[in-house]
Amino acid sequence: MARSVIVSGASRGLGLGIARRLAALGYTVIGIARRRSDELASATREAEHASTGMIHFRPFDLADLAGIPDLVRGLRREFGSIYALVNNAALGTSGVLASMPDSEIDRLIRLNTVSPVLLTKYVVRSMLADGGGRIVTIASIVGFTGYSGLSVYGATKASAIGFTRSLAREVGRAGITVNAVAPGFIATDMTAGLESEERERIVRRSALRRLADIADVSGAVEFLLEDRARNITGTVLTVDAGSTA
Amino acid sequence: MNPTGEAAVLTRATPVRPAIEAQFERVAKEQGKTLQPLSDDLVLADSDLDSLCFAIIVARLEDTLGYDPFGLAEDAAFPVTFGDFVAFYETRRPGVADVPD
User: Fold this and answer.
1) What is the pLDDT of residues A27-77, one digit of tens each?
2) Which candidate, B98, B78, B75, B99, places its Cα nearest to that of B87?
3) Domain ranges of chain B
4) Does the beta carbon of A168 lie under 8 angstroms from any beta carbon of chain B?
5) Which of A51, A171, A177, B58 is the most exposed place for a label (fewest CB within 10 A)?
6) A-chain residues within 8 Å CB-CB of B31?
7) Domain count along chain A
8) pLDDT tens digits for range A159-177
């Protein structure tokens, strides 16, 4: 029976890339996002035709914190054991802290930090009952390097790394691995606002003189879900073409 | 959760205690703990089970019994003895409190 993997924020960008990749490898992907994008609908059809793994879309607004326990219970009833959770959904709001609206700061922390922590809590409970599982959280190199205009985003990504390390220690004995993947700047809707000059600067400073892309990051997630990654936990896999090398 | 993915159907007569005892014993074995005999006055802190063990027990009991009394009453203090633990499940069983004996 195919292993089920929940991917949050699966409607576009990196989440969509991860969902496509995992489905192509035979996983049953449960994609969560507020709305099904045309790209996700097309990925779902492709997966059906390819007869590898399926992509199931379940609409949910991850800012609805009170709804998360029932979301996970429902998914478990529908799909049985959850093998893995990929915490990918996040806002990439940029702005100078001194002038960022308080409501925006609250929204960013709620979606990027509180929501994945709660989602993980309820999925981990199900993994504890089942005797194992994999958690992968998408962090960012901004969680450990500075970037002007991303202080709140950076705070949420640093917290994802701290969460990963401590949770790995907490649930390791129960056969659950917990890791983070820290992408550098990759071409997605989230980074579309970057000026080309800024992009050039990042490329120039990276060891490999290029940007990592969605396939690179999806490949890292894929690896962390494989049996051969069973002894890797509490770590951060950086995929940034050497930006932080 | 049973293999069909459905939560167990509880009736008034379904005994909670054997399900709890079975999970204590199973988790102790899996986690390499030496479980003390399960008497009502056994203090849970002295049972050799730790907080992760209890998290596993509660998660599995939710599958077996269909409810999580700790989730239903988040502010409730964790039971002190094994007897308190069983009573916690018995008294917070959905629908049971409203049914007269």
Assistant:
1) 999 999 999 999 999 999 999 999 899 999 999 999 999 999 999 999 999
2) B78
3) 28-33+42-91
4) no
5) A51
6) 173
7) 1
8) 999 999 999 999 999 999 9
